[in-house]
Write a sequence for this structure.
């Protein structure tokens, strides 16, 4: 069953704007990961943030983690049409299983 | 390095039949996980294998089974197919506690 929750479920913004997605989870974690999925294809790993880290950057991506609130956010700056995809967060516990959120569908309008 | 390879990419089966899907992980990765993705249920964990042993299993009926071979390649089998089994089946490989690398998936349609 899904234990992570992303919000919003869907987000539509203009190209060039920033997009922010949030993820909440329920149990303690080793790390939290964000993935992107283009329509009907496999998921692509974007960024991993460990439980002892608070913020991480990768190109136009910025991820924050607040373990006290059990939440994370993914910020995509200066969005592009190619960023249109579904974005998933996954938490890594110690039992060799990633727990996935339901995803946020991001649409970038030209 | 070659990525995760899933075969076949597309499959159409009739209710009651069985199906076997294959996944070849990235070389050196010993962990292989399987997921079912449907529009209604999202990404659901099926099971995870490491060194030929199933370490974890999701909440799926016994019709769903899997195995892993000594070369880390994995197969999953679904018996007595139902219409609701129509989905995208994704395989992911990883080294322990690192990011998962996904294959392109197998799109199964049960008619």
């Amino acid at each position: 069953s899904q234990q992570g929750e992303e919000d919003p479920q869907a987000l539509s913004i203009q190209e060039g704007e920033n997009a922010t997605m949030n993820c909440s989870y329920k149990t303690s974690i080793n790390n939290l990961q964000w993935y992107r999925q283009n329509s009907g294809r496999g998921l692509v790993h974007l960024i991993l943030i460990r439980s002892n880290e608070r913020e991480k950057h990768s190109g136009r991506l910025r991820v924050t983690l607040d373990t006290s609130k059990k939440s994370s956010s993914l910020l995509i700056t200066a969005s592009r049409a190619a960023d249109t995809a579904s974005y998933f967060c996954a938490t890594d516990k110690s039992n060799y299983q990633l727990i996935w959120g339901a995803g946020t569908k991001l649409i970038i309008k030209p | 390095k070659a990525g995760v390879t899933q075969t076949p990419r597309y499959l159409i089966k009739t209710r009651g039949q069985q199906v076997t899907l294959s996944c070849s992980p990235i070389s050196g990765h010993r962990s292989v996980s399987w997921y079912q993705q449907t529009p209604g249920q999202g990404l659901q964990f099926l099971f995870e294998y490491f060194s030929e042993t199933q370490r974890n299993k999701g909440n799926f009926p016994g019709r769903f089974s899997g195995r892993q071979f000594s070369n880390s390649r994995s197969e999953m089998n679904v018996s007595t197919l139902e219409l609701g089994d129509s989905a995208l089946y994704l395989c992911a490989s990883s080294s322990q506690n690192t990011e998962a690398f996904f294959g392109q998936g197998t799109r199964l349609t049960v008619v």
In short: The CA atoms of residues 29 and 50 of chain B lie 9 Å apart. The mean pLDDT of chain B is 93. The two ends of chain B are 37 Å apart (CA to CA).
